[in-house]
């Protein structure tokens, strides 16, 4: 098992430890890295935020690493190339079943659930000048950016578009890059699956006029019947472009840990993140859903023993032994 800081890591150094963790630190790493997603996406901003909080609270230097998103994070955390990462329930289920495209046929069962993050809404954005105001307006053969290859968006949004009868030319890239391509007329639409507000969308609406396209009730029902998602409304205050909530669908995100990490270390990491929601929200607004009561949104991954103990002791969680790694 190797826990290394990769090239390009944004390091959050813990220069002072303001508290002493009354725990046996045997086996704790000297530093840690969190696998996130592309720059301009919610994963990177959110992951940098909780890495900083953990570093400050535990006195262990840490940072966020740019990755390909949930599928790659499952692979990196499973192998131990990264100690921590973030994923969504759909890619987690596929990875555990051995259907992760990074390593087909390999059940990734050594990546454990750590704490609930937030729901990922699936939303569509186009320039106002395009005239696209609904899914049915998307022209035949439209150039659609689906985010980084292997991300939650790239895994599920193309299937959703096909389900809704959209014929498209599929494009991939980081959210910031795709936002620039949309503004330059190289893309017709971006299909985002990321916690709101998505930084790339916020940047776009400052620079130009955009349409945030909601699903109709019929489209929403069709998608929830076909995919592991639930109804969701993007709040009107998420973007200045919105004047009312936008109808969407969403999938839950969870932070994950390599299952072999020390129980005491993971317990304290979870404690640092979950004990002060206001501090988390200050790092990213998507953290408004990073609350202990949402522990039960994980129905896919086994829990890390340290995380299971924290939620049992502090959130009244009833996690069966069959859902705890090594239990």
TrEMBL record:
<protein>
    <recommendedName>
        <fullName>C4-dicarboxylate ABC transporter substrate-binding protein</fullName>
    </recommendedName>
</protein>
<feature type="signal peptide">
    <location>
        <begin position="1"/>
        <end position="22"/>
    </location>
</feature>
<dbReference type="InterPro" id="IPR011852">
    <property type="entry name" value="TRAP_TAXI"/>
</dbReference>
<dbReference type="Pfam" id="PF16868">
    <property type="entry name" value="NMT1_3"/>
</dbReference>
<keyword id="KW-0732">Signal</keyword>
């Amino acid at each position: 098992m190797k826990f290394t800081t990769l090239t390009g890591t944004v390091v959050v150094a813990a220069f002072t430890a303001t508290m002493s963790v009354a725990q046996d630190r045997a086996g704790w790493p000297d530093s840690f890295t969190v696998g996130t997603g592309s720059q301009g996406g919610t994963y990177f901003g959110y992951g940098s935020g909780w890495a900083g909080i953990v570093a400050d609270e535990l006195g262990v230097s840490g940072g966020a690493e740019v990755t390909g998103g949930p599928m790659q994070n499952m692979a990196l955390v499973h192998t131990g190339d990264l100690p921590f990462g973030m994923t969504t329930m759909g890619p987690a289920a596929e990875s555990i079943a051995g259907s992760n495209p990074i390593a087909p046929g390999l059940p990734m069962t050594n990546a454990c659930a750590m704490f609930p993050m937030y729901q990922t809404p699936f939303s569509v954005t186009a320039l106002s000048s395009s005239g696209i105001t609904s899914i049915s307006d998307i022209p035949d053969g439209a150039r659609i950016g689906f985010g980084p290859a292997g991300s939650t968006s790239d895994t599920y949004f193309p299937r959703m578009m096909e389900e809704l009868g959209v014929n498209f030319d599929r494009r991939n890239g980081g959210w910031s890059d795709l936002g620039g391509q949309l503004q330059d007329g190289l893309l017709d639409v971006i299909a985002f699956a990321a916690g709101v507000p998505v930084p790339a969308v916020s940047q776009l609406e400052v620079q130009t006029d955009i349409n945030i396209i909601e699903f109709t009730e019929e489209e929403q029902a069709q998608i929830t019947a076909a995919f592991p998602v639930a109804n969701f409304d993007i709040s009107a205050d998420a973007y200045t472009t919105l004047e009312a909530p936008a109808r969407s669908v969403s999938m839950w995100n969870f932070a994950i840990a390599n299952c072999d990490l020390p129980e005491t270390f993971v317990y304290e990491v979870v404690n640092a993140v979950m004990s002060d929601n206001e501090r988390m929200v200050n790092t990213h607004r998507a953290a408004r859903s990073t609350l202990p009561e949402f522990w039960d949104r994980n129905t896919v991954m086994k829990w890390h023993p340290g995380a299971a103990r924290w939620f049992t002791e502090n959130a009244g969680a009833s996690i069966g032994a069959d859902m705890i790694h090594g239990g």
